[in-house]
C-alpha cells in the first residue's frame, strides 16, 4: 500500500503572486509600472517603476535659453500647464527681481485657477472611471471644453500654452474673454452640485473609497506630500495662503481639508472631496479676479533678454497636484546652469507603497486615482 | 413543435411522417430563433450605445446607415468577422477556442423555454424555469475556460472573480424565482404566465409585497449573473483591462459580446415572464401577435433599466459584492419565500 | 528663526562641520561637511526650535569647480522658516551619507540624484536608478556626460 504523505498545514505556503500593473493599463494614469506582490486579492507589497515618460527636461533646461524652456514646462504636468509655467517663471523673475504689471498678475491668477479647475475636473472624471462610473467623466469634459475654448481664444492653444512668460504673458486677454469667463463661473456652481449628486454621495462610491488608503498626517509631512493629498489628511496647508506668491493674498478663499466625514481622515474619499471643494474655491478666486482686473500693458515688463544675475533660487508654487518646487541656478548667462524641478506627483507616488499595504487589488486602483498623479510630471 | 407538425400534416396532407417533420420543424425553429436572437443582441448593442450617449450628454452613433447610425452594430459585426483570429502562443488551445462557444450556448439555450405568446414557445418543458436556471449556469464554465486558457494573470483574475460571483448569486436568483413558482404552482413557463391571467393586479410582482421584493431581488441578482455594473468586476475595464476576455479578438470576442447581450435580454424576459405577466396585456389576455409585442416591450423596459444602472452607478468591490449576495439578498429571498407561502395560506389565492 | 540664527545654532552644535554660510543671497545657504550631513539633518528635524519637518527638495548639482554638490532645501511647517544646505563631494569619490531615515521622501530624491549625477548615498536601502533604465550607462546630468552610442542594440538618437 502506498504511503500517504502527511503535510503539516503550517508548511503549505500560499504562493505569492507577482502581478504587473502597467506600463500600459487603463488605470495607472499614464505609463507607470506597478509590481504588486499579492496573496490572492490582498496586496503584500507594491513597487512602482517609473521613468517611462522621462524626457530629460532638466537637461534641456541647461541647453536652452530661459524663455525657450517654458514650452517644456508645459509638458510636465500637462493637465495644468499654466501652473507649471507660472512656477518656473516666478523662480526666474525672483532671480531677476522683476516687478510685473498689475494686469499681468491678475491674468496669471485667472488662467492658473481656471487650469486648476480643469485639472481637478480630470481627476474627478478619471477617478469615476477607475471606480466604474462612466458618466461623470463625460460631464467633467463638458466643462473642460468651455475652459479650453477660453484658453484657445486667448493664446491659441487648448492644452499646452506657453502662455506665461518671464515678465508678463504672451497675449493679452481678447475681447469676449471676461464675458465668457464670467458666464462660466456662474454656470459652474450648478455643475459642482451635479457632480456631488452623481458621484460623491453615491453609496457604492463611498464604500469603495472611504477607509481606503489612509494617509496619516505625520507620514504625509515626513514624505513631503503636499496639495490636496496633504489637505485630505486634515493638514490645513496651502502655499497660496501660507507662503503667498503673486497676488493671492488679495483674494478671499477657504482652504478645504478632509475631516473624515465618511470614514477616516486621510482616506481616498477625503482626498477626492478636497479636490471637489477646491474647484469651488478656485471658482471664487476667478470670480473675484474678473471683477478686480485693471487695465494695463501686459508686455511692459518683459525683458529683451532674460539674463538673470549669478545666483540660485528655490521657488515653490501651489499647483493642482501640490507644491511644485523649481530650483534654478543661474551662472549669469542666458541659459540656466541647473534647473531642478521637484514635482508633487513624484512625491505622492513615493507614498503609494505605504498606502497600499494590506489593501485589495481593486483598492490599489482607487488609491492611485485618489493621489491624482500625472506621469509627465513624475518623470519629467 | 409536435402540435404544429400534427396540424400541418392534417391540414395540408403532407406525406411526411410525424417523427421526421416534428424534429425538422424544431430544427428550423431553432435556426429562426437563433438568428432572431443574434439580431436582437445586435440591436441591443446599438441601443446601449444610444442610451449611454444620451445619458452622457452626447449623441452616440449617428452616421452609419443614416438614421441615428442604426447599422452601427452591423458594421461592427462585419468588421469583427474580418479581423485576424489571434490565439496567444502560450494559450491552452482547446480551452481557449471552446470557451466562447460554451458561453454562447449557455446564453442562447435559455431562449428555448421563453414564452412569447400563447402557444408561441419553442418547447414548453414542464420544468421550464428549472431548465433555464440550470442551463444559464453553463456560462460560468465558459468564463473559467476563457480565463485559464488565455494564460494571462489578469484574465485568470477576472475569471475567478466571475465564477465566484455567478455561483454566489445563483442562490438569490433561485430562491426569488422559487417564490414566484410557489405562487404559480408549476415550473412550466406557460403555466406560470397563465397563473397571472386577469389584469395587472394579478401579475406576481404586484400581487403581494413579498413577491414584489422577490422581483427586486431577482432583478439585482440577475444583474450579477450577466456581469453588469454594479456587478461587473469580471470585466472591470479599469482594473483588469477586459477581464476574462482580454485575449480574445475578432469573431471569438464577438461571441462573448453577443452572448452577454443575449443573456441580458434572456434574464429580462424571464423576469417579465415570472413577475410581470409575460405575454399578457395589462388588462388581461393577449392575442398571439400582441402577446409577442407585450413580452418584448416588458423585457425591453427591464433591459433599459439595466443599461440605466450601468451608466449611473460605480462598481462594487469583490468582497462587497459577496457580502451583498450572501448576507443581504439571500436572507431576504428566504424571507420572501416564507412570506409568500404565509400569504398564500392566509389569502387562499397567492 | 532667520537663516543666520539657524546657522548660529548649527555652528554651536556641530562646530567646524559647518563649513560656511551665505546669507546675503536670494537663497541663504549653509555649507556642511559631507560626513556630518545625516547627523545635521536629524538635528534639524528633531530640535524643538528648528523642527525642520519637511524636506522640500534634494538635488544633485554638478558644480563649476568640478565637485558634485547635494543641495537640501528644508522647511519647518511648525515654525515657518527655511534654509538650504549644501554638501560638496569630490567627483572621483562622490559619497554622501543618506538622510532617508530623517525624511522618508529622501529615498526617492537620492535615487534620482544617484541616477542623474552618480552621487552614491551611503546607507541607502535601495540605491538603484529611478528614471533611466536599470542598465543605462553614465550619469546624464553631469556636464561631461556623453550619451552612449548603442543601448541594447538600438542606436541612441541624439
UniProtKB/TrEMBL annotation, chain A:
One of its GO terms (cellular component) is plasma membrane. It is found in: Cell membrane. Pfam families: Complex1_49kDa (PF00346). NDH-1 is composed of 14 different subunits. Subunits NuoB, C, D, E, F, and G constitute the peripheral sector of the complex. InterPro entries: NADH_Q_OxRdtase_suD (IPR001135), NDH1_su_D/H (IPR022885), NiFe-Hase_large (IPR029014). Belongs to the complex I 49 kDa subunit family. It comes from Handelsmanbacteria sp. (strain RIFCSPLOWO2_12_FULL_64_10). Its EC number is 7.1.1.-. It is a peripheral membrane protein. PANTHER family: NADH DEHYDROGENASE [UBIQUINONE] IRON-SULFUR PROTEIN 2, MITOCHONDRIAL, NADH-UBIQUINONE OXIDOREDUCTASE 49 KDA SUBUNIT. This is NADH-quinone oxidoreductase subunit D. One of its GO terms (molecular function) is NADH dehydrogenase (quinone) (non-electrogenic) activity. NDH-1 shuttles electrons from NADH, via FMN and iron-sulfur (Fe-S) centers, to quinones in the respiratory chain. The immediate electron acceptor for the enzyme in this species is believed to be ubiquinone. Couples the redox reaction to proton translocation (for every two electrons transferred, four hydrogen ions are translocated across the cytoplasmic membrane), and thus conserves the redox energy in a proton gradient. The keyword Transport applies. NCBIfam families: PRK06075.1, PRK12322.1. Gene3D superfamilies: Cytochrome-c3 Hydrogenase, chain B (1.10.645.10). Its main location: membrane.
UniProtKB/TrEMBL annotation, chain B:
Its EC number is 7.1.1.-. Belongs to the complex I subunit 1 family. It is found in: Cell membrane; Membrane. The chain crosses the membrane at residues 20-46, 95-117, 129-148, 169-188, 200-221, 261-281, 287-309, 321-346. Pfam families: NADHdh (PF00146). GO terms for biological process: aerobic respiration. InterPro entries: NADH_UbQ_OxRdtase_su1/FPO (IPR001694), NADH_UbQ_OxRdtase_su1_CS (IPR018086). One of its GO terms (molecular function) is NADH dehydrogenase activity. Keywords: Cell membrane, Membrane, NAD, Quinone, Translocase, Transmembrane, Transmembrane helix, Ubiquinone. The keyword NAD applies. The lineage of its organism: Bacteria, Candidatus Handelsmaniibacteriota. It is a multi-pass membrane protein. NDH-1 is composed of 14 different subunits. Subunits NuoA, H, J, K, L, M, N constitute the membrane sector of the complex. GO terms for cellular component: plasma membrane. The keyword Plastid does not apply. It catalyses: a quinone + NADH + 5 H(+)(in) = a quinol + NAD(+) + 4 H(+)(out). This is NADH-quinone oxidoreductase subunit H. NDH-1 shuttles electrons from NADH, via FMN and iron-sulfur (Fe-S) centers, to quinones in the respiratory chain. The immediate electron acceptor for the enzyme in this species is believed to be ubiquinone. Couples the redox reaction to proton translocation (for every two electrons transferred, four hydrogen ions are translocated across the cytoplasmic membrane), and thus conserves the redox energy in a proton gradient. This subunit may bind ubiquinone.
Automatic annotation (TrEMBL), chain C:
One of its GO terms (cellular component) is plasma membrane. This is NADH-quinone oxidoreductase subunit C. NCBIfam families: NuoC_fam (TIGR01961). One of its GO terms (molecular function) is NADH dehydrogenase (quinone) (non-electrogenic) activity. It comes from Handelsmanbacteria sp. (strain RIFCSPLOWO2_12_FULL_64_10). NDH-1 is composed of 14 different subunits. Subunits NuoB, C, D, E, F, and G constitute the peripheral sector of the complex. Keywords: Cell membrane, Membrane, NAD, Quinone, Translocase, Transport, Ubiquinone. It is found in: Cell membrane. It comes from the Bacteria. Pfam families: Complex1_30kDa. Its main location: membrane. Residues 30-150 form the NADH:ubiquinone oxidoreductase 30kDa subunit domain. It is a peripheral membrane protein. Belongs to the complex I 30 kDa subunit family. NDH-1 shuttles electrons from NADH, via FMN and iron-sulfur (Fe-S) centers, to quinones in the respiratory chain. The immediate electron acceptor for the enzyme in this species is believed to be ubiquinone. Couples the redox reaction to proton translocation (for every two electrons transferred, four hydrogen ions are translocated across the cytoplasmic membrane), and thus conserves the redox energy in a proton gradient. Its EC number is 7.1.1.-. It catalyses: a quinone + NADH + 5 H(+)(in) = a quinol + NAD(+) + 4 H(+)(out). PROSITE patterns: COMPLEX1_30K.
Amino acid at each position: 500500500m502506498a504511503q500517504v504523505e502527511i503535510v503539516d498545514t503550517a508548511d503549505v505556503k500560499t504562493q505569492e503572486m507577482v502581478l504587473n500593473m502597467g506600463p500600459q493599463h487603463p488605470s495607472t494614469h499614464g505609463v507607470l509600472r506597478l509590481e504588486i506582490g499579492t496573496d490572492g486579492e490582498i496586496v503584500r507589497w507594491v513597487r512602482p517603476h517609473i521613468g517611462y515618460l522621462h524626457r530629460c527636461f532638466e537637461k534641456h533646461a541647461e541647453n536652452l535659453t530661459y524663455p525657450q524652456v517654458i514650452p517644456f514646462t508645459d509638458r510636465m504636468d500637462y493637465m495644468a500647464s499654466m501652473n507649471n509655467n507660472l512656477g518656473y517663471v516666478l523662480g526666474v523673475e525672483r532671480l531677476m527681481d522683476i516687478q510685473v504689471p498689475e494686469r499681468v498678475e491678475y491674468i496669471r491668477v485667472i488662467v492658473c485657477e481656471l487650469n486648476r479647475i480643469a485639472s481637478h475636473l480630470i481627476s474627478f472624471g478619471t477617478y469615476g472611471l477607475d471606480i466604474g462610473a462612466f458618466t461623470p467623466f463625460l460631464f467633467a469634459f463638458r466643462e473642460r471644453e468651455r475652459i479650453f475654448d477660453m484658453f484657445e481664444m486667448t493664446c491659441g492653444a487648448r492644452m499646452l500654452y506657453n502662455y506665461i512668460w518671464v515678465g508678463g504673458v504672451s497675449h493679452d486677454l481678447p475681447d469676449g474673454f471676461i464675458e465668457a469667463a464670467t458666464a462660466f463661473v456662474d454656470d459652474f456652481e450648478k455643475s459642482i452640485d451635479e457632480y456631488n449628486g452623481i458621484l460623491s454621495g453615491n453609496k457604492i462610491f463611498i464604500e469603495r473609497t472611504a477607509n481606503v488608503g489612509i494617509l496619516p498626517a505625520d507620514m504625509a509631512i515626513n514624505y513631503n506630500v503636499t496639495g490636496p493629498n496633504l489637505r485630505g489628511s486634515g493638514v490645513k496647508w496651502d502655499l497660496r495662503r501660507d507662503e503667498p506668491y503673486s497676488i493671492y493674498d488679495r483674494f478671499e478663499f477657504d482652504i478645504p481639508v478632509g475631516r473624515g466625514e465618511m470614514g477616516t481622515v486621510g482616506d481616498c474619499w477625503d482626498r477626492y472631496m478636497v479636490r471637489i471643494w477646491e474647484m469651488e474655491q478656485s471658482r471664487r478666486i476667478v470670480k473675484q479676479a474678473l471683477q478686480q482686473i485693471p487695465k494695463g500693458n501686459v508686455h511692459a515688463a518683459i525683458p529683451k533678454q532674460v539674463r538673470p544675475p549669478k545666483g540660485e533660487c528655490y521657488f515653490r508654487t501651489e499647483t493642482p497636484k501640490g507644491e511644485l518646487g523649481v530650483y534654478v541656478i543661474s551662472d549669469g548667462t542666458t541659459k540656466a546652469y541647473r534647473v531642478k524641478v521637484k514635482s508633487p506627483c513624484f512625491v505622492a507616488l513615493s507614498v503609494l507603497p505605504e498606502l497600499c499595504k494590506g489593501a485589495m487589488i481593486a483598492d490599489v486602483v482607487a488609491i492611485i486615482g485618489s493621489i491624482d498623479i500625472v506621469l509627465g510630471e513624475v518623470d519629467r | 413543435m409536435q402540435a404544429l407538425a400534427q396540424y400541418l400534416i392534417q391540414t395540408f396532407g403532407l406525406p411526411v411522417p410525424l417523427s421526421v417533420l416534428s424534429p425538422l420543424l424544431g430544427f428550423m425553429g431553432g435556426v429562426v430563433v437563433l438568428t432572431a436572437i443574434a439580431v436582437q443582441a445586435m440591436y441591443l448593442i446599438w441601443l446601449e450605445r444610444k442610451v449611454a450617449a444620451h445619458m452622457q450628454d452626447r449623441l452616440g452613433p449617428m452616421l452609419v446607415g443614416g438614421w441615428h447610425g442604426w447599422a452601427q452594430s452591423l458594421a461592427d459585426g462585419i468588421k469583427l468577422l474580418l479581423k485576424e483570429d489571434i490565439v496567444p502562443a502560450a494559450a491552452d488551445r482547446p480551452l481557449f477556442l471552446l470557451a466562447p462557444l460554451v458561453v454562447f450556448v449557455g446564453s442562447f439555450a435559455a431562449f428555448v423555454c421563453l414564452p412569447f405568446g400563447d402557444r408561441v414557445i419553442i418547447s414548453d418543458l414542464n420544468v421550464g424555469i428549472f431548465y433555464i436556471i440550470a442551463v444559464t449556469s453553463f456560462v460560468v464554465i465558459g468564463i473559467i475556460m476563457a480565463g485559464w486558457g488565455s494564460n494571462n494573470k489578469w484574465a485568470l483574475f477576472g475569471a475567478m472573480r466571475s465564477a465566484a460571483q455567478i455561483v454566489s448569486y445563483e442562490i438569490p436568483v433561485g430562491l426569488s424565482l422559487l417564490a414566484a413558482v410557489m405562487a404559480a404552482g408549476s415550473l412550466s413557463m406557460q403555466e406560470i404566465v397563465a397563473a397571472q391571467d386577469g389584469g395587472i393586479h394579478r401579475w406576481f410582482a404586484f400581487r403581494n409585497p413579498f413577491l414584489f421584493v422577490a422581483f427586486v431581488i431577482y432583478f439585482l441578482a440577475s444583474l450579477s449573473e450577466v456581469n453588469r455594473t454594479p456587478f461587473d468586476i469580471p470585466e472591470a475595464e479599469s482594473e483588469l483591462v477586459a477581464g476574462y476576455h482580454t485575449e480574445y479578438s475578432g469573431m471569438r470576442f464577438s461571441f462573448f459580446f453577443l452572448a452577454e447581450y443575449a443573456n441580458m435580454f434572456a434574464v429580462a424576459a424571464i423576469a417579465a415572464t415570472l413577475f410581470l405577466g409575460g405575454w399578457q396585456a395589462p388588462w388581461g389576455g393577449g392575442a398571439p401577435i400582441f402577446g409577442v409585442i407585450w413580452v418584448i416591450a416588458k423585457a425591453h423596459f427591464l433591459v433599459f433599466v439595466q443599461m440605466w444602472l450601468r451608466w449611473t452607478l460605480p462598481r462594487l468591490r469583490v468582497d462587497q459584492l459577496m457580502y451583498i449576495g450572501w448576507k443581504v439578498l439571500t436572507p431576504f429571498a428566504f424571507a420572501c419565500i416564507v412570506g409568500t407561502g404565509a400569504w398564500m395560506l392566509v389569502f387562499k389565492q397567492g | 528663526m532667520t537663516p543666520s540664527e539657524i546657522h548660529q545654532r548649527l555652528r554651536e552644535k556641530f562646530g567646524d562641520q559647518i563649513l560656511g554660510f551665505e546669507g546675503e543671497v536670494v537663497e541663504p545657504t549653509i555649507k556642511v561637511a559631507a560626513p556630518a550631513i545625516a547627523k545635521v539633518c536629524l538635528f534639524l528635524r528633531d530640535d524643538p526650535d528648528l523642527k525642520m519637518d519637511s524636506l522640500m527638495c534634494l538635488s544633485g548639482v554638478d558644480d563649476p569647480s568640478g565637485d558634485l554638490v547635494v543641495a537640501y532645501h528644508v522647511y519647518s511647517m511648525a515654525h515657518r522658516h527655511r534654509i538650504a544646505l549644501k554638501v560638496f563631494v569630490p567627483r572621483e569619490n562622490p559619497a554622501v551619507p543618506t538622510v532617508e531615515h530623517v525624511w522618508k521622501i529622501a529615498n526617492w530624491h537620492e535615487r534620482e540624484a544617484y541616477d542623474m549625477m552618480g552621487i552614491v548615498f551611503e546607507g541607502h536601502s535601495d540605491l538603484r536608478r529611478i528614471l533611466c533604465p536599470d542598465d543605462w550607462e553614465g550619469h546624464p546630468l553631469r556636464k561631461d556626460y556623453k550619451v552612449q552610442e548603442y543601448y541594447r542594440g538600438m542606436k541612441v538618437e541624439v
